[in-house]
Amino acid sequence: MTPRRKRMLIIGLLLAGMGVATALILQAFNQNLMYFYSPSDVQAGKAPDARDFRIGGLVVAGSVKRATDKLAVEFTLSDLKQEVVVRYEGILPDLFREGQGIVANGKLGPDGVFAAREVLAKHDENYMPPEVAEALGHPGPDATLTRSAP
Prior knowledge:
The protein is an alpha+beta fold. The protein folds into 2 domains: 1-33; 36-136, CATH 2.40.50.140. It is built from 3 helices and 7 strands. The chain has a 5-stranded mixed beta barrel. A hairpin with a 5-residue loop joins strand 6 (101-108) and strand 7. It is elongated, with a radius of gyration of 23 Å. The protein starts with a helix and ends in a 14-residue tail after the last helix. The relative contact order is 0.14.
């Protein structure tokens, strides 16, 4: 084999190795993406069945049911159009309450109930996650909120 063919073989192997490494990185990145869906999207069947995703909306008043013997809680999440039941086992954020905007991460079960692994609550009265604001038709976090004088 001539020196030129050896160089071309080495360059070819390096390019093939870089291509395989890039493909593996992109595949790992795609598996870790977590898309946001509103309760209306979930009810319309747009949410994936086998993958984790985020769901956001407002906790429906009177829907929070806590288990007496463990940290399990079940509540209904709404985007003012559709509702989805969410089950979560763990300690809820301090700001979690009825009427509160939340985002939950988890999977949709075969029974149509969202099994949350993590629940996030908004941190003050003016902030709402952009995904939730868009789903509810509210202005985003960059919009200026004004209050009328008392």
